[in-house]
Amino acid sequence: MISVIITAYKEDKTIGKAIEAFAKQPQEKEILVAAPDEATIKVINEKAKKYPFVKHVQDPGKGKPVALNICFKIAKGDQIVMSDGDVYVSDNAIEEL
After folding, report:
1. What is the H or E stretch that residue 32 is in?
2. Which of 7, 11, 82 is nearest to 40 (CA)?
3. CB count, 10 Å around CB of 59?
4. Mean pLDDT score of the chain, rounded to an integer?
5. How confident is the model at residue 17 (pLDDT cuts 50, 70, 90)?
6. Is 51 exposed, middle or buried (0-12, 13-18, 19+ CB in 10 A)?
7. Residues 54/23, Cβ–Cβ less than 8 Å
8. Disulfide: which of 57, 77, 95, 97 matches 3 by Cβ 3.0-4.6 Å?
9. R_g of the chain, CA atoms, integer Å
10. What is the DSSP string of 34-77?
């Protein structure tokens, strides 16, 4: 399994597309999305209803390294892919990695 970790801050306009880009990848995965702001969290939670492998990870708002470390502790995959809330990957991005 692959763990996709996405960090986002005030990216409610782009996070949905970023999640969708990874969700469409055929590999077995979990998508952990760390965000501290309510607008972004709202979009993440909407996507989590559609995709059971998407999970919001509460980010305390102390910076990206803290958010990443929280995600690393709960990631279940044997490989980790990191991205940001405003990055859209291609349809075969995980396979290429």
Report:
1. strand 29-35
2. 11
3. 23
4. 96
5. very high
6. middle
7. yes
8. 77
9. 12
10. EE-SHHHHHHHHHHHHH-TTEEEEE--SS-HHHHHHHHHHH---
